[in-house]
Q: What sequence folds into this?
């Protein structure tokens, strides 16, 4: 007979969906409640790959699920189509980055259509279209007007290969995130967004996401922002009028400071060294040259040989009056805290390594052998046993970072670390020598890039007027044609050479002026795109606040954990800015986040160079979209990596054929009465109906697929060895299978639906309600005793609670008769089997 042919089924239903548009979310008269399901939009650097297939497959499960639950679901798609890879590829191939990008988009789009995600294609957008980046420019100007976009000259991360600056977030272990070249420092005037103004809110609002975002992402965000609580302490400097402040998280260790360290590349170091001998100056300069270009991560590494130069200057400890030598060393950063530290080698590992390298004194001021509450004492009777190994950091090389009691600390001796921190801070504050403060690791967001393929910054530089915003009615500032421009990186934006483009009249005074030649970091584009999907074609507004009220924030966001910091932090920041501007009514953009695992092969990441690439297009041709989607959903929890060597798309295809065959075999008509169906099969069906929603909402997609497989098996058994293909229960279970299979295998599901005698599209069929009477569990017998004698037996659910069972027992007529007027003094319940009542009187 007819056989399951995935190719024919795909080709049959795609044009039907195009025609019917069951996934469009635009009708304003639609009264259904709303859900917004979004996948991180793809970067069009080639065809879709297995990672896309996985992420978009999971997003589609959620979108389709909510549609079946009666929601109007917004599930849009677009392309993050500006950026360096397009430009580099374009340079290598000698083609226009625009052509290269849009050709890739066309290919990805064709693959997506084969894969069948339920996108509302009418909302498609590309960030490289002027219709989109115009609103990037608008957003920039909103920040500019609020003082949140500003220019400053500072040493920035510089990729010598790509010849462009990088945000801190784009430097990975000292290397360029894009090309892997070692990142150096360069002093440049650049545009920044003042994200540090939002540091506290970006940390505190993470509490709203607890439980709906992966815990790992929440902690990565917290660490990146890096809020630290401590104190500023002021040290006077011999021969200098102004004291120097240092930032410390351990003011309790102040009596253990034995030297001070300043960052060699700080202004303070330059100033201190200016008043020393030529010999010191020479040594310092040589050291400074060796340090230039080192990455922050390398400088902070604990396992690194410590280097530095003694400046022959001295500071004074504000509490003890002790004289402290001042050194310059690269493990202190110029742009954190005050660029100078009080060194406490006994209790800080980096300081200890440095002290041991340069023979500086080490003094213990927190006795970590002295118990504080909850700690286990090492010394029991006051004296150290002779065989106890030394814990002296100067000898062991291990700093004592734990809790303990203060010692060698004058009036603070005996206090625990926790008590000493506020006490020492208060003592400093009362004499104007210190104050409690906070510090953040987060730096302002550097958004200028010296590259072509991005959004031009809408600012005009005028000698007379300064930085003049391009008037809103002159947006977009369009990119000039790439033809005729040299796109090769040379440290300056290629736009600077576009004579006709760069030279303009100042919008304010009319005199000759120049456009800003930089383009924006593409993370600006992706920081707000979820809002543009609400009205992607509007040329009047970036996004309609009324639509934002209806749809946003995004209910379910899906994407890779590689975006745990950058993209999510920037989107959260821009959302808060838009909230402050009164443009949106919420402060977090993504209410729930799912990070899918990776698709790997034989335990390792797939890549062309390793030759272990599983090609999406090839798998799609071999097994079809549905089998791929089922394979990914069935492989395990969605957060886990999928090893393609361990899964079986052929097995998935077999399962789909089996499910499809069930619908094919049904002989009853759609108007049969289900209640007349075989009860055993109906129970399986209704248990599935009751259980699946909770499982989907908990992200247990693999369990739902397993249950569906059981349902299909039970139905097949009912057809072949039970009541037969004409039984109403067989039709019922086939319909439920089709509806639920729509989440994982939409082409097959639609075809089953047609076989069962219905019109498309199955995607809009409401989720069937489970019939509670079919969910009743088998009963167990509970025994009720009164004063040791069995008085009644109750038929109850095995899941009954203790309270419920006690209530039933007390309500039993037999029990009441037996208790009579005596007082119940004790009831022992062991649900679901025994209730034992004791009486008195
Ligand atoms: C003395 C001390 C004693 C410290 C001790 C720690 C332990 P977080 O938590 O990251 O904020 N520090 C301050 N400014 C620095 C700079 N510009 N470059 C490198 N290190 C700097 O770290 C704060 C601690 O890092 C500060 O507390 C300071 O060392 C160091 F037992 O002060 B501490
Ligand atoms: Zn002017």
A:
């Amino acid at each position: 007979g007819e056989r399951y042919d995935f190719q024919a089924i795909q080709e049959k239903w795609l044009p039907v969906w195009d025609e019917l548009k069951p996934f469009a979310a635009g009708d304003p008269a639609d009264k259904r409640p709303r859900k917004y399901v979004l996948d991180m939009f793809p970067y069009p650097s080639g065809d879709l790959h297995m990672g896309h297939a996985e992420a978009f497959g999971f997003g589609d499960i959620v979108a389709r699920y909510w549609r079946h639950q009666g929601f109007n679901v917004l599930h849009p798609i677009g392309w993050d189509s500006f950026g360096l890879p397009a430009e580099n590829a374009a340079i290598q191939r000698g083609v226009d980055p625009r052509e290269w990008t849009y050709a890739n988009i066309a290919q990805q789009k064709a693959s997506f259509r084969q894969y069948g995600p339920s996108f509302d294609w009418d909302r498609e957008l590309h960030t490289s279209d002027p219709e989109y980046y115009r609103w990037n420019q608008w957003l920039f100007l909103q920040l500019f007007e609020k003082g949140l976009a500003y220019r400053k000259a500072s040493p920035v991360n510089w990729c010598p290969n790509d010849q462009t600056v990088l945000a801190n977030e784009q430097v990975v272990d000292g290397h360029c995130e894009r090309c892997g070249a070692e990142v150096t420092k360069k002093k440049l005037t650049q545009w920044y967004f003042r994200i540090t103004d939002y540091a506290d809110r970006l940390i505190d609002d993470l509490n709203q996401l607890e439980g709906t975002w992966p815990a790992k992402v929440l902690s990565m965000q917290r660490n990146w922002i890096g809020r630290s609580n401590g104190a500023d302490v002021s040290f006077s400097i011999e021969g200098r009028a102004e004291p120097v402040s240092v930032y410390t998280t351990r003011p309790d260790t102040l009596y253990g400071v034995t030297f001070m360290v300043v960052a060699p590349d700080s202004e303070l170091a330059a100033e201190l060294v200016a008043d020393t001998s030529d010999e010191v100056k020479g040594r310092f300069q040589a050291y400074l040259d060796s340090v230039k270009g080192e990455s922050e991560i390398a400088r902070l590494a604990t396992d690194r040989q410590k280097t530095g130069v003694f400046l022959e200057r001295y500071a004074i400890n504000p509490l003890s009056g002790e004289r402290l030598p001042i050194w310059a060393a690269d493990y202190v950063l110029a742009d954190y805290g005050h660029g100078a530290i009080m060194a406490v080698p006994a209790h800080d590992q980096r300081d200890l390594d440095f002290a041991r390298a340069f023979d500086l004194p080490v003094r213990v001021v927190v006795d970590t052998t002295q118990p504080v509450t909850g700690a286990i004492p090492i010394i029991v009777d006051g004296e150290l046993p002779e065989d106890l190994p030394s814990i002296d950091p100067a000898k062991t090389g291990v700093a004592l970072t734990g809790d303990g009691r203060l010692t060698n600390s004058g009036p603070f001796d005996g206090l625990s670390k926790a008590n000493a921190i506020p006490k020492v801070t208060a003592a400093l504050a009362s004499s104007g020598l210190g104050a409690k403060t906070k510090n953040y690791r987060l730096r302002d967001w550097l958004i200028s890039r010296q590259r072509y393929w991005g959004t031009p910054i809408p600012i005009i530089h005028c000698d007379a007027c300064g930085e003049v915003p391009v008037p809103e009615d002159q947006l977009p500032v369009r990119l000039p044609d790439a033809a005729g421009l040299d796109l090769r990186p040379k440290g300056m934006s290629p736009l600077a050479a576009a004579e006709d483009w760069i030279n303009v009249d100042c919008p304010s005074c009319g005199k000759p002026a120049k456009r800003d030649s930089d383009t924006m970091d593409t993370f600006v584009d992706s920081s707000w795109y979820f809002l543009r999907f609400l009205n992607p074609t509007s040329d009047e507004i970036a996004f309609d606040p009324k639509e934002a009220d209806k749809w946003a924030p995004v209910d379910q966001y899906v994407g890779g954990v590689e975006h745990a910091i950058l993209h999510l932090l920037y989107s959260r920041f821009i959302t808060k800015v838009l909230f402050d501007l009164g443009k949106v009514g919420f402060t977090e953009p993504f209410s729930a986040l799912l990070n899918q695992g990776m698709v790997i092969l034989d335990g390792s990441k797939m890549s062309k160079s390793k030759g272990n690439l599983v090609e999406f297009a090839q798998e799609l041709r071999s097994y079809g979209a549905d089998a791929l989607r089922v394979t990914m959903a069935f492989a395990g929890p969605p957060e886990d990596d999928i090893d393609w060597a361990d899964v079986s798309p052929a097995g998935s295809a077999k399962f789909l054929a089996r499910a499809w065959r069930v619908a094919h075999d049904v002989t009853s008509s759609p108007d049969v009465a289900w209640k007349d169906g075989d009860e055993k099969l109906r129970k399986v069906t209704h248990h599935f109906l009751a259980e699946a929603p909770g499982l989907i909402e908990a992200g247990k997609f693999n369990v739902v697929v397993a249950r569906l497989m059981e349902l299909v098996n039970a139905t097949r058994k009912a057809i072949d060895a039970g009541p037969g293909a004409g039984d109403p229960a067989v039709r019922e279970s086939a319909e439920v299978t089709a509806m639920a299979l729509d989440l994982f295998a939409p082409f097959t599901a639609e075809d089953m639906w047609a076989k069962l005698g219905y019109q498309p599209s199955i995607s809009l069929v409401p989720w069937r309600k489970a019939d509670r009477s079919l969910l009743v569990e088998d009963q167990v017998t509970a025994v009720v005793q009164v004063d040791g004698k069995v008085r009644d037996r109750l038929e109850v659910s095995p899941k009954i609670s203790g309270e419920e069972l006690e209530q039933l027992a007390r309500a039993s007529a037999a029990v009441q008769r037996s208790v009579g007027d005596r007082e119940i003094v004790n009831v022992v319940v062991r649900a679901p089997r025994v209730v034992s009542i004791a009486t008195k009187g």
About this structure: The longest strand covers residues 149-159. Residues 462, 464-465, 468, 506, 508-509, 511, 513 surround zinc ion (ligand 2) (CB under 6 Å). The CA atoms of residues 6 and 384 lie 78 Å apart.
